[in-house]
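ARCHIVE CARD
CATEGORY: sequence design from structure
SOURCE FIELD: tokenized fold
FIELD CONTENT:
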């Protein structure tokens, strides 16, 4: 008899009325429970915050008494934070964090309405820390002498970790001041200004080196770059299995081909098109990854743990080993490959009429490249690539016709095009950034994107209609308050926000019209960026909900199982249905898999996006460190109380501190601007800036404003050694400051 489980089920019952311990023990008399076992179970459950005792000593559910469990997210500025629970998010005011650190598993209780901290939202106090979330930290080590002995401590890279980790100096081997390291925590601070204590477990390299920071970013985001030997061996073995094409639709003689970037190696989608009397049949043929990554295997366990491939400037951390991702699962031209094909039937207006799914085998007739097909679209027969693609061009031109129909249909229904500008970082042979340009998207890129959107919508609708589980891609409606704040900002730029006058609803069409107005005013990039921050984040879910941004009722990810686990889950469920294996038992199993896959993949997606962004920022810092004192045209991309960020034409972003602007400026948060009298700095304003400083370790670029009148003469360009000297001087200053504070405390 599990006494703890019995107690929990009892107190959580809707008919339960709080009982005294002896009353509950009497209630359980039929189970012949030992008194001491019962009291031990009660004590344990109280410590675990599953139950609590009322003022009269009766047993009640901890949740009913207002105690909730969750994870604490500290703000980067410290002092306050938020706790995410099953009952929603709660704000933790500065006085009520009670020593919790970022990532801790905590117990909270709602603040009493009589408290001065009580507000309109959910405010709570952290009552207890169940488990520390931070086991180790990545950061920069400082080593100095306090006059009597050497001292060493690590400053975490993560701004949300507000303590430093003291390291025993005698344990340091091959570690120098300023190195990037990983420190394992042995004990946590007891008070706000205390140090944690720990040991160095890995040395990553110099804090201003590309390699050291690269490793630090991957580790901090929990991204593993290597597979277990068992997984690699399994991938090699299954990739050598002979193709079994029995019971598959044979499409090897059909005109099917891929279109990808020139440097892509994991080609997981191919396309075909047939024109019919009433419209089109779009074929989207996706690598049958589930044929090789079988449920419950080592390959599958590592794939769900990773959740997604992570793409960096010059590297890929794949979800699957290369023998699969770049090998047997990649739809390479001229090679037979197993696929799962979605045939989407559309009428002449681009409306989806039906979708059919088939297990298939294909042989891609061409490994298409975006830039080459874009050149053909621009130059026709005069393109140098025309002959190379001659045998597929008839189909390709039909595909362009369908793409334009689908694009027009999306515009009519108001699907939003939120295009964030991406940087393409060019490296030399040594891997050092030598140039940064905007990544351009041509018509062939947009064609593939549109066809994949259509296939994903068709497959999600199909799975919903036949009643099988699915990992949906959902996007909730935006918060009205955030959209109102966005509208105020856009209106102050002169953008037409009248489509939002209908107070009761927010539709994609309304926001699309605002973006069109912003495009006419040449504010599209900045307005699109702010709108993106105002919208909810798309996520994976086993529960069907509409996708707001695409303005579609059903949507899932089906087209990239090589690099996304939700797509692999969708394939697995579809194949089970196609093979007649769906029963009540398997439906229950796949519902659990869809939930697990959705939850883990949403978390992994956030980690991957964060890591990709950090790596990009790292390369941009290294690039700009070579350009100290150079001037750039820029646009103000963000305004804060401590200055404004300016984005250069090559998409590098740096801070112009408020103190560098002169005295008297204040921050107008409603209008995203800094003001002093008639002088203002606002979002979207063009400025000229000079690179004044770069901190590679902190991945921060600092600019100074170059004024039109009385601008300074450019100083000689600093080489990288000068930058290193500046960073070293900063460290010495920080170390001296810390030493000085230590002496003051001792006095």
């Amino acid at each position: 008899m599990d006494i703890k489980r019995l107690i929990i089920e009892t107190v959580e019952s809707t008919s339960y009325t709080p009982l005294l311990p002896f009353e509950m023990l009497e209630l359980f008399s039929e189970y012949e429970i030992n008194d001491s076992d019962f009291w031990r179970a009660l004590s344990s459950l109280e410590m675990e915050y599953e139950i609590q005792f009322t003022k009269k000593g009766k047993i009640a559910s901890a949740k009913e008494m207002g105690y909730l469990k969750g994870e604490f997210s500290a703000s980067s500025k410290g002092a306050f934070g938020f706790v995410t629970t099953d009952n929603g998010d709660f704000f933790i005011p500065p006085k009520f964090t009670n020593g919790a650190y970022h990532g801790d598993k905590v117990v909270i209780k709602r603040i009493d309405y009589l408290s001065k901290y009580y507000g309109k939202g959910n405010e709570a106090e952290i009552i207890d820390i169940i488990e520390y979330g931070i086991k180790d930290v990545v950061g920069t080590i400082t080593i100095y002498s306090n006059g009597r002995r050497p001292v060493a401590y690590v400053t975490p890279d993560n701004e949300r970790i507000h303590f430093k980790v003291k390291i025993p100096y005698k344990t340091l081997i091959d570690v120098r001041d300023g190195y990037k390291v990983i420190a394992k925590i042995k004990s946590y601070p007891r008070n706000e200004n205390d140090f944690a204590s720990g040991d160095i477990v890995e040395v990553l390299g110099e804090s201003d080196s590309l390699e050291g920071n690269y490793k630090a970013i991957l580790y901090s985001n929990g991204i593993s770059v290597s597979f277990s030997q068992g997984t690699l061996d399994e991938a090699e073995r299954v990739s050598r299995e002979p193709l079994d094409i029995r019971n598959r639709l044979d499409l090897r003689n059909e005109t099917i081909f891929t279109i990808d970037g020139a440097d892509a190696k994991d080609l997981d989608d191919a396309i075909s098109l047939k024109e019919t009397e009433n419209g089109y049949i779009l074929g989207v043929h996706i690598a049958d990854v589930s044929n090789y990554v079988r449920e419950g295997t080592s390959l599958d366990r590592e794939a769900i743990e990773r959740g997604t491939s992570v793409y960096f400037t010059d590297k890929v951390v794949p979800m699957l080993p290369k023998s699969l991702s770049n090998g047997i699962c990649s739809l390479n031209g001229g090679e037979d490959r197993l696929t799962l094909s979605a045939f989407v039937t559309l009428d002449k207006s681009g409306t989806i009429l039906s979708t059919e799914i088939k297990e298939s085998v294909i042989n891609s007739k061409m490994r298409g490249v975006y830039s080459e097909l874009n050149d053909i679209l621009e130059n026709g027969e005069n393109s140098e690539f025309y002959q190379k693609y001659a045998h597929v061009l008839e189909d390709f031109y039909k595909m362009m016709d369908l793409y334009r129909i689908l694009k027009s249909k999306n515009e009519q229904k108001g699907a939003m095009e939120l295009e964030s500008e991406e940087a393409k970082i060019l490296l030399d042979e040594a891997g050092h950034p030598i140039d940064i340009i905007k990544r351009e998207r041509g018509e062939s890129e947009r064609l593939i994107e549109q066809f994949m959107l259509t296939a994903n919508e068709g497959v999600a609708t199909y799975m919903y209609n036949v009643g099988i589980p699915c990992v949906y891609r959902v996007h909730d409606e935006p918060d009205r308050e955030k959209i109102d704040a966005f509208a105020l900002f856009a209106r102050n730029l002169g953008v037409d926000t009248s489509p939002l006058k209908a107070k009761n609803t927010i539709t994609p069409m309304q926001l699309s019209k605002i973006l069109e107005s912003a495009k006419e005013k040449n504010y599209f990039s900045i307005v699109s960026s702010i709108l993106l921050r105002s919208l909810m984040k798309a996520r994976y879910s086993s529960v069907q909900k509409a996708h707001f941004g695409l303005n579609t009722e059903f949507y899932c990810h089906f087209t990239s199982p090589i690099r996304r686990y939700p797509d692999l889950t969708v394939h697995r469920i579809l194949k089970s249905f196609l093979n007649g294996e769906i029963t009540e038992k398997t439906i229950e199993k796949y519902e659990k898999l869809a939930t697990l896959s959705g939850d883990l993949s949403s978390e992994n997606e956030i980690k991957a996006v964060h890591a990709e962004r950090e790596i990009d920022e790292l390369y941009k810092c290294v690039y700009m460190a070579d350009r100290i004192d150079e001037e750039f045209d820029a646009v103000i991309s963000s305004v804060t109380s401590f200055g404004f960020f300016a984005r250069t034409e090559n998409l590098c972003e740096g801070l112009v501190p408020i103190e560098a602007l002169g005295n008297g400026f204040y921050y107008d948060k409603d209008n995203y601007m800094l003001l002093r009298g008639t002088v203002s700095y606002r979002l979207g304003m063009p400025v000229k800036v000079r690179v004044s400083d770069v901190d590679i370790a902190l991945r921060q670029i600092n600019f100074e404003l170059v004024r039109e009148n009385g601008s300074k003469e450019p100083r000689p360009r600093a080489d990288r050694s000068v930058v290193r000297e500046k960073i070293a001087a900063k460290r010495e200053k920080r170390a001296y400051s810390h030493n000085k504070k230590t002496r003051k405390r001792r006095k």
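CARD ANNOTATION: The chain has a mean pLDDT of 89. The chain is about 30% helix and 25% strand.
SHELF: design records, drawer C
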